[in-house]
Structures are given as structure tokens and as C-alpha cells.
């Protein structure tokens, strides 16, 4: 009986050890992907900041209310949410936190009588909201296998079209961003209409000569500003996903080690009990022969 128990414990230790090897490997893969994702975020950031700066300078020289990308609707009847989740699991609360925040925001809008529409980026989000009968007008699954700017451009053109054609009154992004290598936070940012930023206070506007004129330049810059905002959100979300996965796999590896330590202690106690029992039987047999 004791031998059978020892065999079962040893089998469990081996099983947990194999699982630990998998979680260690997944952590290493996630760490490598995180580094690459962070590099892409950093490379895109100067362009995003440059677009925002130029847009602010040009907007300061024109009446932005005449530009359809800036026009606030008097009554908000419909809002489109671009919700960015992951294609895969094993990333802790990454997906569930996005779902909770999205459902909270949507419930608030619906309480105000606002219709909502979801463009779900990521398989997990697309499946989650479709199963729960949320209004999903677009689903992009297996999106992060090969994340390309062209894919972000497709989403951007879609929401720009719906906004400019008055099919929706606002477009917002819901995504995760990495505050650090081990901490993420949910971001809810307005994409359309574009919110006017103040030009640099230290900039003398007379120093700038716009060619073509500021109105034409603004018309050209607005689509690019929306494109890069969506692209930046996708990049940051992917980096946050891999960060969450790395942390989750590290926790799983530590938990596996704790279980191995506990099972090993249990195994040693059971083995010691078996040895003690055998010694007692030998001693008892020897005494009986005297």
C-alpha cells in the first residue's frame, strides 16, 4: 500500500515538473516577444508624436470646426468602440480586464440611451462579445500572428468612413498598455472626432509658412493622425499582452515549484514511514525467532 502511494506521489512530481518546464519555456518566449514588441512601440512613438505636434500647429491656424474630422456632434446617438484583446490565453487577467472595462463603459452608454457598436480586434474579444450577443460589426481574429501596419490601416479606414458618413458619432479605443515590464493598465481613448491639442506655447506661429495652405494640410494630416493612433494602440496592446503572459508564466512556474517542494516533502515522509515500518517488521521477526 505504501509502495503504491510512493509511486503515485513520484508520478505527480514528474507530471508537475514537466508542466513547469513548459511554463518556463513559455515565459522565455514571452520575454523575447515582449522585447521585440517594446522596440516596435518605441520606433513608432516619434512618428506619432510628430504627427500630433504638426497637427496641433496647423489646427491653431484654421477653424477646425469646419473640418469633418474635428466636428463634435450635438447629440451622441451612436458610439463605435475598437476593443483590442488577445488572440491567445495564458496571459493572466489581460483579456478579462479588457472585457470588464468594455462592458462597464458600454453599460454606462446604454444607460444614457446611446447605441454602441464593437469592432473586436483579437480572437478572445471577438468570441467573448459575440457569445454574449453584443453588437459586433467587425471581428479581426488571429490578428497578432503577423501584426502589420496595413491591418491597422484597414480598421482605420473603416471607422473613418463610418464617422464621416454619419453612421457613428464617435469612435473610441479600448486597449491595454504596459506601464512597466510587469504592470499593465487599461486605456480608453477617443479616436474620432479628433480632439484639438494646443500648439506649443513657445512657438511663434508667424515662423511657419504652410504650403499648401493650412486647410489643405489639415485635410491631409487628419487621416494620418487616426491611422497612427490606432497603430500605436495595437502595438502597445501586443506589448502589454506579452508582458502579462510573461508574468503569468512566471507565477505558474513558481506555483509549480511550490507544489514540487510540497510533494517532495510528502514523498520523503511517506518513504521514511515505509522504511521505519520495514525495520520494525525485521526487528519483530528477529525477536520472534529468539
Would you kindly provide a written description of the structure presented here, covering whatever features stand out?
The chain has 290 residues and is α/β, with parallel strands linked by helices. The protein has a single domain (28-248), classed as ATP synthase, F1 complex, gamma subunit (Pyruvate Kinase, Chain: A, domain 1, 3-Layer(aba) Sandwich), CATH 3.40.1380. The chain is built from 5 helices and 5 strands, in the order H-E-H-E-H-E-H-E-E-H. The protein has a 5-stranded mixed sheet, sandwiched between helices. Helix 1 (2-59) runs antiparallel to helix 5 and helix 4 (149-164) packs across helix 5 (214-289). It starts with a helix and ends with a helix.
What's the pLDDT, averaged over the residues? 88
DSSP summary, beta strand count: 5
- Looking at how many chains there are and whether they match, the oligomeric state comes to single chain
Counted up, domains total 1
What would CATH call the class? Alpha Beta
SS class: alpha/beta
Anisotropy-based shape: elongated
Unreliable runs: 198-204
| Strand line-up in the sheet with most strands | 3-2-1-4-5
Gyration radius (Cα, Å) is 29 Å
Q: What is the CATH-assigned architecture?
A: 3-Layer(aba) Sandwich
Q: H/E series, N to C?
A: HEHEHEHEEH
Number of helices: 5
User: What's the CATH H-level homologous superfamily?
Assistant: ATP synthase, F1 complex, gamma subunit
Amino acid at each position: 500500500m505504501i509502495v503504491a502511494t510512493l509511486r503515485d506521489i513520484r508520478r505527480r512530481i514528474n507530471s508537475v515538473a514537466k508542466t513547469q518546464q513548459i511554463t518556463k519555456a513559455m515565459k522565455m518566449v514571452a520575454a523575447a516577444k515582449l522585447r521585440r514588441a517594446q522596440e516596435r512601440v518605441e520606433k513608432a512613438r516619434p512618428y506619432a508624436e510628430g504627427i500630433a505636434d504638426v497637427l496641433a500647429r496647423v489646427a491653431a491656424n484654421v477653424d477646425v470646426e469646419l473640418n469633418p474630422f474635428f466636428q463634435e456632434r450635438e447629440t451622441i446617438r451612436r458610439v463605435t468602440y475598437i476593443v483590442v484583446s488577445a488572440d491567445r490565453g495564458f496571459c493572466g487577467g489581460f483579456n478579462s480586464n479588457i472585457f470588464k472595462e468594455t462592458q462597464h463603459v458600454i453599460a454606462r452608454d446604454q444607460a444614457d440611451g446611446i447605441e454602441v457598436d464593437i469592432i473586436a480586434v483579437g480572437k478572445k474579444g471577438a468570441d467573448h462579445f459575440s457569445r454574449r450577443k453584443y453588437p459586433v460589426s467587425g471581428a479581426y481574429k488571429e490578428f497578432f500572428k503577423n501584426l502589420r501596419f496595413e491591418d491597422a490601416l484597414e480598421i482605420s479606414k473603416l471607422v473613418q468612413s463610418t464617422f464621416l458618413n454619419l453612421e457613428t458619432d464617435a469612435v473610441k479605443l479600448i486597449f491595454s498598455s504596459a506601464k512597466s515590464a510587469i504592470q499593465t493598465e487599461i486605456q480608453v481613448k477617443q479616436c474620432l472626432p479628433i480632439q484639438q491639442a494646443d500648439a506649443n506655447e513657445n512657438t511663434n506661429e508667424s515662423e511657419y509658412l504652410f504650403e499648401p495652405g493650412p486647410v489643405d494640410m489639415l485635410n491631409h494630416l487628419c487621416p494620418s493622425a487616426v491611422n497612427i493612433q490606432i497603430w500605436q494602440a495595437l502595438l502597445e496592446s501586443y506589448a502589454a499582452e506579452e508582458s502579462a503572459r510573461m508574468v503569468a508564466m512566471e507565477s505558474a512556474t513558481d506555483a509549480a515549484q511550490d507544489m514540487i517542494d510540497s510533494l517532495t516533502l510528502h514523498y520523503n515522509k511517506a518513504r521514511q514511514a515505509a522504511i521505519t515500518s520495514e525495520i520494525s517488521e525485521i526487528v519483530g521477526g528477529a525477536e520472534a525467532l529468539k
